[in-house]
Amino acid sequence: MMPLKGLVLTAGIFLIALGANAQCKDWIWPEDRSTAEEKNVLYSDAVKAKQYRDAVKPWQWLVTNTPNLNSSIYINGTKIYNELAKVEKDPVRKKELVDSLLWVYDKRIEVCGQKEKHYPTKVFYDYIFNIKNNKDTVNVVHLYDEFEAVFDMSGQKVNQALAQAYVNVLKVYQLRMKKLTDEEILEKYDWLISVIDYNVAKETDQKKIDKWESIRANADQMLIQLIKNITDCEFIKEVFVPKFEAEPTNLKYAQWIFKFMLMGKCTSEPIWMKAAEVIYEDDKQPKLAEILGNKYLSDKDYANAEKFYNEGLELSKDDKEQNAEFYVRLGHVKRANGSNSAARDLYRKAVATNPSNVEPYSYIGVLYTNSYEQCRENVNKAQDRLIYIAAYNMYKRAGDTKRMAAAKEQFPSVEEIFEVNWDKGQTKQVGCWINEPVILSTRD
Q: If you ran DSSP here, which 8-state letter would residue 136 be given?
């Protein structure tokens, strides 16, 4: 777990991110303005000088006697108690300071309003100071209830710090209290994933997207820790499959089966494909189209594989890298069907779409190599072995040195080209469906 110092720093960033208060902006001085101004200067100067202990008494006078003076007294009040709590070694005194910090937030909400903005920050500070190494059952329950209240109030609009904290709080709460059923844990996990999906969908900063995905991975690990059999194939079939079979269009059950069977490597189960297709019909995404196509291809259901790859191709038309991958997959389907020329065309399309990936040339080389028996004419060995030169050329373009070496071993020999009165360096035509010229070379 992150050290307390790091957590407090994160909290400071989180506080800033929540933005300034919309109320208590104006300065409202009391009748005894001179005293209030004096106290304000005293505590403000102490804060600027980082003399936080000296700031406490004049600040307390202000918040007691002029609670609606200005939002700055609450902003600085949280800073005072946060800084004091960070360095306090005595646990009793630290708790008093943390309680004061949280009270400042409560007071700010009471006087200035905007609970939806400031309550989450208060809860986050509560988490930072009170979850780590705290065995107090009452406190754990309190934190859990606070986070539930934040999520109820904020919906999916929570930031990364709160989302990650919720993962930790939920885990600690269940491990210590053991009050939640598996179904309740799954419901809360689903909600957390929906929060992550919502924020990833609207985010454009890749670093922030990566952070959300890191939180997703942490949530997955939390789930595995709390429901130890969650990725066990038999457990999934016993617990989740009956629910899905009773409601075969229930998206939630489909998502559970799809994800947990994937994590548990149970994808050979037919129910996994049914669940995947329910999810796909609800939200057609190219990655899922690829997964479905791959599964059908491995099952030799070429018609369905081609269907999903073509749909994925259409869905990913603005993503050249993904587009190229679908051309490769469609090429695999054509190759499996024996349509070599069509497969080659698709592999070439893949390279044309995404020139940075030259691997499809290697697949063309495999097509050529595997066509030797089909294309050999048995008139002379030199002519028949030209196919391996064509394959070598493709492997070379792909940078596939292992297959290049294997192909070269099958080139015509010096004796074989001598027999037909050919010379190295001549251009020769490979026949059959390949139908392309090669420069004559030998294996020796």
A: -
pTM of the model: 0.67
Choose among 321, 343, 312, 317: nearest CA to 330: 343
| Nearest in space to 357 (alpha carbons), one of 347, 369, 344 | 347
Cα(187)–Cα(176) distance, integer angstroms: 19
Contact call for residues 28 and 66 (beta carbons, < 8 A): yes
Q: How far apart are CA 263 and CA 117, in angstroms?
A: 37
Domain ranges of the chain: 376-439
Q: What is the pLDDT of residues 146-180, one digit of tens each?
A: 999 999 998 888 899 999 999 999 999 999 899 99
Long-range contacts of 171-176 (CB under 8 A, 24+ apart): 171/222, 171/225, 171/226, 172/131, 172/140, 173/140, 173/141, 173/143, 173/144, 174/226, 175/225, 175/226, 176/137, 176/140
Q: Which residues are registered as beta bridge partners of 429?
A: 437
Quick: pLDDT tens for 193-252.
Answer: 999 999 999 999 999 999 999 999 999 999 999 998 898 999 999 989 999 999 999 998
Q: At what angle do helices 340-353 and 320-336 cross, to 10 degrees?
A: 170
Is the CB of residue 331 less than 8 Å from the CB of residue 339? no
Length of the chain: 444
Owner of token pair 């994937």 = 262
